[in-house]
Specification:
By secondary structure, this protein is an alpha+beta fold. Helices cover 26% and strands 26% of the residues. A four-stranded antiparallel beta sheet has the order 3-4-5-6, covered by helices on one side. Strands 1-2 form a two-stranded antiparallel ribbon. The radius of gyration is 13 Å and the shape is globular.
Length: 100
């Protein structure tokens, strides 16, 4: 399934940006807002740096990064070394969306 963002770029789950897609999808699920209507993730985190941290070569080097946590509005986003993404409400309530 292909979606087109406001900037005209297509987003697909199997693209090179699949991690970014997982994050956007989990945030959309947690907030109940369509992914296309979400604020751009680059306003909250350096997407190139995040993607590089979790690319297979970095994982093969067994870097010490186990997970990265950042906030998007009222949500806490945790990206784990295995590629899973967990989104929870900032007040530490139960996780509302998870993407494996």
């Amino acid at each position: 399934m292909e979606r087109v963002a406001d900037d005209g770029q297509s987003m697909t789950p199997d693209s090179a940006e699949s991690l970014v897609f997982k994050i956007a999808s989990a945030l959309a699920d947690a907030s109940g807002v369509d992914m296309i209507d979400m604020p751009p993730l680059y306003k909250y985190i350096d997407l190139d740096a995040l993607t590089q941290l979790f690319q297979p070569p970095a994982a093969a080097r067994q870097c010490s990064v186990r997970y990265v946590t950042f906030t998007v509005e009222m949500y806490r986003v945790e990206v784990c070394g295995d590629g899973s993404v967990e989104v929870s409400v900032m007040d530490d309530q139960k996780s509302t969306a998870t993407e494996d």
